[in-house]
Amino acid sequence: MKNIKIIIPILLVALGGAYKFVLAKPADAGPPPKVEGEVYVLPKEFLVNLEDGKFAKLSVALVFDHGFHSAPVAAVTPPAGGTTRVALASVPRAGWSDIPPASRRTAPAPVAPRTVFAGGGAPPPKPPDGYGVLKQEALIRAIVTDELTQTASRELMSAKGRKKLRKHLLERFHKETDVKVHDVLITDIAVQ
């Protein structure tokens, strides 16, 4: 009788676990995202002469493939070994004799985690004014400008014409760049 009192709770827990992990339906993760990947808005607007002598001012955004990012991904890692060595040469006019003896004996102050960039090394250089962090942004901008100057104002004013322009841009991006784009958006437009 004692054995049954012990076996029944264990059996109930085992059956509950089996139901939870094997037979129960997984929890609904919610609706899938409407946009897959990062949306990157080119920071500087385009102002171009169109084929028919009019001007267009517009903004363009790129929708990257899932996993492709506009900027290098930074990861924070703790310092290796727990101690940090500082070169005294980096401190102006400081030498070992300039440090009071009491502070030489104390434990080093905690060091904040450092940022390590993908590929190692230093952070990427600051882009020129009006440009973002996308590595091949100049090439992307050149393609957009090239396609826009070959477009008439009536094409930009119609939804069908903008769709055709987006398709041409996407084809050229795939053919001429390493940027992994699956959609091009024209976010703002003015034609005069």
What does this protein look like?
This protein is 33% helix and 19% strand. The chain has 192 residues and is an alpha+beta fold. It has a domain at 39-74 and 117-191: 2-Layer Sandwich (Tetrahydropterin Synthase, Chain A), CATH 3.30.479.30. The strands form 2 sheets. Strands 1, 2, 3 and 6 form a 4-stranded antiparallel sheet that branches. Strands 4-5 form a two-stranded antiparallel ribbon. The longest helix is centred in the N-terminal third of the chain and has 22 residues, at 2-23. It starts with a helix and ends with a strand.
Give the tags.
192 residues, 5 helices, alpha+beta, four-stranded antiparallel β-sheet, single chain, two-stranded antiparallel ribbon, 6 strands, Tetrahydropterin Synthase, Chain A
What proportion of the residues form beta strands (DSSP E)?
A: 15-25%
Please report the distance between the alpha carbons of the first and last residues: 93 Å
Report the principal-axis shape: elongated
Give the total of beta strands: 6
The biggest beta sheet reads:
4 strands, antiparallel
The CATH superfamily of the domain at 39-74 and 117-191 is identified as: Band 7 domain
Short description:
Belongs to the FliL family. The chain is an alpha+beta fold and 192 residues long.
List the helices and strands and how they pair.
Layout: H1 2-23, E1 39-41, E2 46-49, E3 55-64, E4 74-77, H2 101-105, E5 114-117, H3 137-149, H4 153-157, H5 159-176, E6 181-191
Antiparallel strand pairs: 1-3, 2-3, 3-6, 4-5
